[in-house]
Structures are given as C-alpha cells and as structure tokens.
C-alpha cells in the first residue's frame, strides 16, 4: 500500500488532521493565525499555524 497505512483509520475513536494544498485568500483573517495543540496534561504542547 504505497503512501498509506495498514491501520484502520475509519474505526471509531481514530482521529487525524487533514490538510489542503489549495491556495486561498486571507480576506478578513489574520495572516499568521495559530492555535495551541495540547492541554494541561500534555508534555509537549505546540503551536499550529492555519
């Protein structure tokens, strides 16, 4: 299975982030919007740009 996984990613409880390669205009949005990934129990929180 090229570029894939043998795990069942459609099973209940499996989560993932999807991304897009499509360009879009930032009308009305901050050009450097970020969100914190990880809560108080997380040992390595990080900022995700979107």
List keywords for this structure.
mainly beta; single chain; 50 residues; flat; two-stranded antiparallel sheet
Element layout with pairings:
Layout: E1 34-37, E2 46-49
Antiparallel strand pairs: 1-2
Can you give a write-up of this model?
The chain has 50 residues and is mostly beta strands. It contains no helices and two strands. The mean pLDDT is 79.
Rg, nearest Å: 16 Å
Percent of residues in helices: under 10%
Q: Number of DSSP helices? A: 0
Poorly predicted spans? none
Average pLDDT taken over every residue: 79
Could you give a short account of the major beta sheet?
A: 2 strands, antiparallel
Which sequence of SSEs, written as H and E, runs from N to C?
Answer: EE
Decide which structural class fits the backbone: mainly beta
Short description:
This protein is 0% helix and 16% strand. With 50 residues, it is mainly beta.
């Amino acid at each position: 299975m090229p570029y894939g996984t043998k795990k069942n990613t459609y099973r209940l409880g499996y989560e993932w982030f999807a991304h897009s390669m499509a360009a879009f205009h930032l009308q009305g949005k901050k050009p450097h919007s970020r969100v914190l990934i990880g809560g108080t129990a997380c040992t390595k929180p990080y900022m995700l740009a979107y």
